[in-house]
Amino acid sequence: MKLYTAKIAPNPLRVEYFLKEKGIFDEVELVQVELATEAKEPGHQKRHIFGRVPVLELDDGQMLSESRAICTYIEEIYPNPNLMGKNGVERAFIEMHDRQVEFHVFFPIANWIRHSHPGLADLEIPQCPDWAASSEATARKNTAIIDVELGKKPYVAGDNFTIADITLYCALNFARLGRFKPWEEHANIAIWREKIMERPAFS
Amino acid sequence: MKLYTAKIAPNPLRVEYFLKEKGIFDEVELVQVELATEAKEPGHQKRHIFGRVPVLELDDGQMLSESRAICTYIEEIYPNPNLMGKNGVERAFIEMHDRQVEFHVFFPIANWIRHSHPGLADLEIPQCPDWAASSEATARKNTAIIDVELGKKPYVAGDNFTIADITLYCALNFARLGRFKPWEEHANIAIWREKIMERPAFS
Question: Which terminus of chain A, N or C, has less C-beta within 10 A?
Fold first, then answer.
């Protein structure tokens, strides 16, 4: 399998950590795609109709994209350790937590950074400063809500490490580009993040 | 089961169509939540930490939120007709198509409408006109890409009707609030939409 990826971009990183947790990262060939140029060309648009990364090329040549869908595939082929739920009901609740941190923490952080960071001006044309400011406020407010939640349980989705922890970890790390380090402001996030960073896949 | 929902909002509608396709819509009690006021109050935030709809209250009192996660649960409890894939590999490819139309068509449409429509000013404070304009351009461009894709296959994810068709249908209908009717501009979308509207769940 080949993974089309891009440096710094948080979505491919989610898949890379997922592969590391499964212990199969070294079996996948990484192919770097330049987001501002190459991703917009027809060659990459054959891999992803909207020109995004990550894309996983399967051994039969099929192209599978969207970070979470790639993880669903990997989970099927390499079921251990389980990261997305052992049955439909578990899958639903983990998907709930994963989408909550994705939509309400990761997206506001991503919109804030993409619309304000000079280094990402080629990716958002035009950058919208008002939207960056509004997204920053949402990101800070929702990060505080997640901090409260992490005071009630060891991991984002409950007792076990899951894909939702990978999503939150990548989201919060991306906030550093906005000089926001939630683990310096929120005690429960700090404890949780230390625990994540002790895992072999994250060290 | 109770579904906390809101009129006009496109995300609860995705769950409502999913329930209708499963033939169990009448078994679920609908509870309307006023988004601009009630959703922001502690009572609803006990149901959803970020105060959103839809939320499905299970018979044991557990709260399950995020539209797609609710569908994952319903699919497990009521497997027929299958709408999300019969095994992990099918689930992954359907999830890819679902997220592609969700992230690249539905979100730009939603951002455009939420940041420009006077009737939604209470939901996005502040509304960002530049972001609305940029999102409208993305929505129109990506809708044209989806039109090309729908010329190659009968449904969004391939040969069969799936959850991804529900997502696209709700997204495009929401665009009417911006006076954009993609089916009047794009022939393949028009043919596909006619087919969807002939289904009992959509009539």
Answer: C
- Structure tokens given for B147: 């039109």
Torsion of Cα atoms, A181 then A184 then A189 then A195, to 10°: 100
Burial class (CB in 10 A: 0-12, 13-18, 19+), A200: exposed
Q: CB neighbours of B86 closer than 8 A, spacing ≥ 6?
A: none
Chain A within 8 Å of B40 (Cβ-Cβ)? no
pLDDT tens digits, one per residue of B152-201: 999 999 999 999 999 999 999 999 999 999 999 999 999 999 999 999 99
Q: Which of B138, B127, B191, B170 is nearest to B20 (CA)?
A: B170
Strand pairing of A55-57 and A63-65?
antiparallel
| Domain spans, chain A | 2-77, 88-202
Domain at B2-77: CATH code: 3.40.30.10
CATH annotation of A88-202: 1.20.1050.10
Instruction: Look up tokens 């429960």; give the residue.
Output: A188
- Are the beta carbons of A29 and A2 closer than 8 angstroms? yes
Whether the pLDDT of residue B8 is over 90: the answer is no
- Interchain pair A65, B96: CB under 8 A: yes
Contact B128, A135 (CB under 8 A): no
CB-closest option in A50, A104, A130 to B50: A104
> Which candidate from B88, B99, B142 shows the least CB-CB separation from A75?
B88
